[in-house]
Amino acid sequence: MATFKFELVSPERILFSGEVVSVIIPSVEGEMTVLAGHAPLVATLKAGIVFAQTDASNGKEFFVNGGLVEINQASTTILAEQGRFIEDVDTAVLDAEILTAETRLAGTSDEAEQKRLHDVLVQLREFKGVFEQRKAA
Q1: Total structural domains within the chain
Q2: Cα–Cα dist 22/12, whole Å
Q3: Could you write out the three-class secondary structure of the chain?
């Protein structure tokens, strides 16, 4: 299997840097799978899980909330507004993210920012439901 360089960077730290077989990314346009040799692309991320497949039987999962992904034929880089190891995420973390977005939405009068924050809230609430179902399974 062909591999490529993948980096996932949050404001606090580099969460992952290494060779992968594939990466599944939650973009606002829909979930996408990146393989080696992918066409160049820049996309906006939504709240969700990034899955980096490191070999045929192993992978790592991360929670991201916002940011950008840059893809080229040799590498993929995610610059996440927020990123965590999936083990560090629970319902309380998601509730805090939702509360932060709600507070920011209530405190802004800028229409573009209101729309962006509204979209973030929808994405976070949707992801929270998926996350809770996943934990229950």
Answers
A1: 2
A2: 24
A3: CCCEEEEEECCCCEEEEEEECEEEEEECCEEEEEECCCCCEEEEECCEEEEEEEECCEEEEEEECCEEEEECCCEEEEEECCEEEHHHCCHHHHHHHHHHHHHHHHCCCCHHHHHHHHHHHHHHHHHHHHHHHHHHC
Instruction: Specify whether 20 is located in the same domain as 47.
Output: yes
What's the CA gap between 69 and 83, in Å, rounded? Answer: 13
Q: What is the CATH number of the domain that holds 66?
A: 2.60.15.10
63 and 26 within one domain: yes
Q: Please report the pLDDT score of residue 27 as a whole number.
A: 95
9 with 51, same domain: the answer is yes
Low-confidence ranges of the chain (pLDDT < 50): none
Note the pLDDT of residue 136: 79
